[in-house]
Amino acid sequence: MKKHIPLKKFSQNFLIDSNIIKKIVQFIKPDSSQVLVEIGPGLAALTNPVCNLVDELNIIEIDKNLLEKLKKHSFYSKLVVFCQDALTFNYLTLFNKKNKLIRIFGNLPYNISTSLILYLFQKINIIQDMNFMLQKEVAERLVALPGTKLYGRLSIISQYYCNIKILLHNISPKCFRPVPKVDSTFLRLTPYTDNSPYFTHNVQVLSYITNLAFQKRRKTLRNSLGKIFSEQSLTKLNINPRLRPENVSILQYCQLSNYIVENYQKYTLY
Ligand code: SAM
């Protein structure tokens, strides 16, 4: 069979470091009782060792040529193959098959990783966990805390939905072929169920407010959110109107969004 030429448009940087691969599979800890879904199996760096541990693995791969290559492997019979775009895939079908929360993993195509994570948050109720290899900078934004440069809308929305744990950090570009220009991080996002530290009436309002606040990162809340919140109402919520958006905690953003829902239900904001 012809050698595969990696496609840039699909962010094809294949994992080749056996030590990293082994650690990732150990972290995922797959077992046959789980509904497992791999995004972008590529040349099977993770698919193969995971199949050694389970009876069935769902895979979503956009590149038909890569799927053809998988056919020659003995583990192919264990795969349930979806030749589709992970960004539009209907994950509910996998949950419905066994009425079981799904576990998603993958060395993600870095060009779509943020959009994909945001898309998956919309299906959060059917997900047990997500174990992803990401570009280091994206991972750092996901876990960033208030008061830091990387803290922003992505951190707030992600930490609102999930507990996030970095499992392997600073993974060298040398662990991939072709060699990417960036370092990588492997992490786990575990959706909160009834143990969430945060509450909002409406996550779309939370998303709207954080968008508005971080559009003007250097401005104070008094300026950026001035159209919706008077200084008085911010003070009433115990939030200093002179704070910059990066110094406002997730809990405070939730408070702000709840205030809108409770007081301005008549207005369409989004
Ligand atoms: N898992 C393999 C590994 O670790 O070597 C490949 C990882 S590579 C970074 C990303 C994989 O995702 C490629 O196989 C690529 O074809 C696939 N891919 C890219 N965009 C995709 C999309 N929108 N939906 C599904 N798969 C996609």
TrEMBL record:
<comment type="similarity">
    <text>Belongs to the class I-like SAM-binding methyltransferase superfamily. rRNA adenine N(6)-methyltransferase family. RsmA subfamily.</text>
</comment>
<feature type="domain" description="Ribosomal RNA adenine methylase transferase N-terminal">
    <location>
        <begin position="20"/>
        <end position="193"/>
    </location>
</feature>
<keyword id="KW-0808">Transferase</keyword>
<comment type="function">
    <text>Specifically dimethylates two adjacent adenosines (A1518 and A1519) in the loop of a conserved hairpin near the 3'-end of 16S rRNA in the 30S particle. May play a critical role in biogenesis of 30S subunits.</text>
</comment>
<dbReference type="InterPro" id="IPR023165">
    <property type="entry name" value="rRNA_Ade_diMease-like_C"/>
</dbReference>
<dbReference type="Pfam" id="PF00398">
    <property type="entry name" value="RrnaAD"/>
</dbReference>
<keyword id="KW-0698">rRNA processing</keyword>
<keyword id="KW-0694">RNA-binding</keyword>
<protein>
    <recommendedName>
        <fullName>Ribosomal RNA small subunit methyltransferase A</fullName>
        <ecNumber>2.1.1.182</ecNumber>
    </recommendedName>
</protein>
<feature type="binding site">
    <location>
        <position position="15"/>
    </location>
    <ligand>
        <name>S-adenosyl-L-methionine</name>
    </ligand>
</feature>
<feature type="binding site">
    <location>
        <position position="40"/>
    </location>
    <ligand>
        <name>S-adenosyl-L-methionine</name>
    </ligand>
</feature>
<keyword id="KW-0489">Methyltransferase</keyword>
<dbReference type="InterPro" id="IPR001737">
    <property type="entry name" value="KsgA/Erm"/>
</dbReference>
<keyword id="KW-0963">Cytoplasm</keyword>
<dbReference type="InterPro" id="IPR011530">
    <property type="entry name" value="rRNA_adenine_dimethylase"/>
</dbReference>
<dbReference type="InterPro" id="IPR029063">
    <property type="entry name" value="SAM-dependent_MTases_sf"/>
</dbReference>
<keyword id="KW-0949">S-adenosyl-L-methionine</keyword>
<dbReference type="GO" id="GO:0003723">
    <property type="term" value="F:RNA binding"/>
</dbReference>
<feature type="binding site">
    <location>
        <position position="107"/>
    </location>
    <ligand>
        <name>S-adenosyl-L-methionine</name>
    </ligand>
</feature>
<dbReference type="GO" id="GO:0005829">
    <property type="term" value="C:cytosol"/>
</dbReference>
<feature type="binding site">
    <location>
        <position position="61"/>
    </location>
    <ligand>
        <name>S-adenosyl-L-methionine</name>
    </ligand>
</feature>
<feature type="binding site">
    <location>
        <position position="85"/>
    </location>
    <ligand>
        <name>S-adenosyl-L-methionine</name>
    </ligand>
</feature>
<feature type="binding site">
    <location>
        <position position="13"/>
    </location>
    <ligand>
        <name>S-adenosyl-L-methionine</name>
    </ligand>
</feature>
<dbReference type="InterPro" id="IPR020598">
    <property type="entry name" value="rRNA_Ade_methylase_Trfase_N"/>
</dbReference>
<dbReference type="GO" id="GO:0052908">
    <property type="term" value="F:16S rRNA (adenine(1518)-N(6)/adenine(1519)-N(6))-dimethyltransferase activity"/>
</dbReference>
